[in-house]
Specification:
Shape: rod-shaped
Mean pLDDT: 82
Number of strands: 4
Helix content: 40-55%
Number of helices: 3
Strand content: 5-15%
Order of helices and strands: HHEEEEH
Largest sheet: 2 strands, antiparallel
Length: 141
């Protein structure tokens, strides 16, 4: 069965792309026409190419921005419950300012939060140390 248009026996023509009309400022019209002439293309082709490339560019920017945000989020300082001063045995880089920390430099090491973290007050820590000291004296005698 053949496709027919309004008249009998006529084949339906394949329609062209849709037509888009837009009001633009005169200077933009002049720029588009000038560019089309320079490129040896029709104004319609230049406008179509600009629209295609603009949408692709915006998609790329959005995608790249999302990837950059993921990378920056991954670089955020991890949840730290406290900092312990130490002398570095290996080179490092400061999490906040990216300063180079060579071996032998005094720096603070972050203690990551664990679920739940084990904490002792200073009195309990002293009692624990005293118990350990007493146990080691008993073992020596």
């Amino acid at each position: 069965m053949s496709e027919t248009g309004k008249g009998r026996g006529r084949k339906r023509r394949q329609t062209k792309d849709r037509v888009l009309q837009a009001r633009i400022p005169e200077h933009l019209d002049e720029e588009i026409r000038s560019r089309a002439e320079q490129l040896g293309l029709s104004v319609s082709t230049v406008v179509r190419n600009v629209l295609f490339h603009t949408f692709n560019l915006v998609e790329g920017v959005v995608t790249d921005s999302a990837q950059i945000a993921r990378v920056l989020k991954a670089r955020e300082t991890p949840a730290v419950i406290g900092w312990q001063e130490a002398v570095l045995n290996k080179n490092g880089i400061c999490e906040k300012c990216n300063a180079i920390l060579p071996t032998g430099t005094r720096a603070a090491v972050g203690m990551p939060v664990q679920a739940p973290p084990a904490l002792l007050c200073l009195d309990c820590l002293a009692a624990l140390s005293a118990t350990a000291d007493a146990d080691s004296k008993d073992a020596d005698s």
